[in-house]
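Researcher: I've got a protein sequence and the SMILES for adenosine-5'-triphosphate. Could you write out the 3D structure of the bound complex as C-alpha cells? I'd like something to compare against our soaking experiments later this week.
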Amino acid sequence: MTPDLMEEGARRLSRTMAPEQGKTESGGREAGFSRIAVPGEVDVTHGRILYLEDVHRSFDGFKAINGLSLDIAPGELRCIIGPNGAGKTTMMDIITGKTRPDKGTVFFGSTIDLLRHNEPEIAQLGIGRKFQKPTVFEQLTVFENLELALKTDKRVKPSMLHRLDSAQSDRLAEILHTIHLADSVRRMSGNLSHGQKQWLEIGMLLMQDPKLLLLDEPVAGMTDEETARTAELFLTLKGKHSLMVVEHDMSFIRTISEIVTVLCDGAVLAQGTLDEVQADERVIEVYLGR
Ligand SMILES: Nc1ncnc2c1ncn2[C@@H]1O[C@H](COP(=O)(O)OP(=O)(O)OP(=O)(O)O)[C@@H](O)[C@H]1O
Ligand SMILES: [Mg+2]
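Model: Sure. Here is the predicted complex with adenosine-5'-triphosphate in place.
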C-alpha cells in the first residue's frame, strides 16, 4: 500500500479507533496503487505496453533474474507461470521499482523508461500492483475503502476531497458491480471473506484506472467458487486494462489465458498457449513434472 493511502487511511481510522486496530493483516507492506501523474497516454504505437529486455538481478551472487526479456500488448491478459523461485515476484518488483535490476531495459509503452522512476512515480504512471495478501482497511466499509483509493488519486483536486462528484459516484458503483460487492457496500471490510477482500483490493486499484495491473497469485487461498468469479472478473478487465497475472493454479490459468509465459531460473523458458507450453519437454522437466 502506498504511503499516502496508508496515511489517509490512518487519519480516517484514528477518528474512530486506536491506531493498532487499523493495521491490516500484512501491516505496512507496500502495494502499487496506480495514479497517473502526468496527463497523456502511454505511447503504445509499437504495440507494447510493457517491454523488458535482457534484465538481470542478482542477490548475493544468486541470479534471480538472468537475461529476462518479454513484452505485453495493450489490453492483453498475460499469464506467467513457473516453479517456486523462478523469479516471478522479483520481475514484478523490478517493473514496479521496488527492486532495481543490475542491468537491462524496462519500458512502459515505448517512451517511458521505468528505470528512471521510483516506486511511487511508477504507480502514478498507471501501473497497479496487487500482492498476494489482501491489504484493505479492515475497520472501514467496502464503500469507504473504495472512496479512500479515489481520494489518494493525485489527479483528484483537493477541492473535491470532501465529496464524490457524480462521475466518481458512478465509477464507484460500476466498480462495486464489477468486483461482485454491490450487495456488500456498507459491510465492514474485516467481515468479508478472503476472496471478497481480494476483490475489494482489486477494486481499490481500479478506482485509480491503471493501464497495467500486476497480480501476484490472486486466487491463492480462494474457494473454487471465488476462483471462478475471479476468472470472470479478469476476463471483464481484459481489453480495458493490460494484466499480468502470476498464478500456480493451472485450472484458473486455463480459464483466463491466451498467451502463457513460463519463467524458470530468471528467464523465459517457453511461451505459447497453455496446451503448447504444457507439451514442451523443457517445461515438463523443470516445472509441470515436479
Ligand atoms: N531481496 C532478496 N534477497 C535475496 N534473495 C532474493 C530476494 N528476492 C528474491 N530473492 C530470491 O530470488 C529467487 C526468485 O524469487 P521470487 O520470489 O522472484 O520467485 P517466484 O517465482 O515469485 O517464486 P514463488 O512461486 O515461490 O512465489 C528466489 O530464490 C529468492 O529467494
Ligand atoms: Mg512469488
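Model: The mean pLDDT is 86. The beta strands are 50-59, 62-72, 77-81, 103-108, 112-113, 127-130, 212-216, 242-246, 260-264, 267-272.
Researcher: Great, I'll pass this along to the crystallography team.
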